[in-house]
Each structure stands twice: as structure tokens, then as C-alpha cells.
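The following record pairs a protein chain with its ligand, FE2/S2 (inorganic) cluster.
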Amino acid sequence: MPASDTPTLCPIPPGLVAPGAETADFVPLVALDDLAPGEMQRVSFGDLDVLVASTDAGIVVTEDRCPHMSAPLSLGTLDGCVVACVLHRGAFDLETGETRTFPTTGGLDADGISHAPWTPADTTPKPEPSASKATAHSLTRTRRLRFYPTRVEGGILEARVPV
Ligand code: FES
């Protein structure tokens, strides 16, 4: 993105600020010149991995952990505002924080509603998991994404990340 362009920073949906972010200091993440439209980048601070995504709705900063089983979202694919996880076919809206496609394993959503496992049309069904594994899947909760407040200073994207 040319430094002269003013980037759109996607507003955080109500109630979805990441824990500790509201009082954290701003830290630099990436130069805007190095973030192309539609691109996702992982930025790590110790064991905290942050996802920077340039979506159709603007730039978003969230944890680089799938809200299902923590796979790196930065390895997935971004289509508009929706990131598809490389595991279990989950897809998540980076503008709203909501799940767009529930993971194949099934389980609980953020509101505690149960979703059944499913098999994608382009794959063959897997053998039934053990009872304990099936129970673990059914009780695994897919949460809403949480976001870090952002700003731009001197062409650098910064976010309040509790490092
Ligand atoms: S870890 Fe991402 S969909 Fe399961």
C-alpha cells in the first residue's frame, strides 16, 4: 500500500476486544508498504502470535489462532473478509468475529449451541472417532474472534497488544 494512501482500519465489533488489549501500549506490527490488499501476516511476540489481515473491510489485527483448535489462521486463505482455516474447514469473518462455516468436527458455538460433525462433499467420510474423542469434539467450543485496537503512525501499523 503506498504510504500516501490512508488505510481503512476495520472497527472492532462490540465486546470483541482481546483480553488485556484495552490497556496495553501500542506496538509496531508492519509497515503498510509491506502489506498488500488481501494479504495476511503473522507477527509474534514471545508466545503470542498476532494475525494482521488486509481485508475488504479494512485492516484487522486478531490472534493468529483459530477460534476452534488454535491452528494458525495466517496459513489459511483470505477471501474478502473471511479467513478459512487449514484444519477442519472452519471459516471465520474477520469483520464481525463470527463463524461463517462451522468446523467439520462439530461442537459448541460461542453461544453454547451444539453443531453436528459434517463431511465435506469432496472427501470420503472418516471412520467414527472413539467415544472419548467424539465427546471432546462435541464439547469443544468455537469462540468469536477477539481483536486488537489499531492505529497508523508514520506509515507503520500499530496495535494495542499485551506483550
Ligand atoms: S483448528 Fe481451525 S477449524 Fe479447527
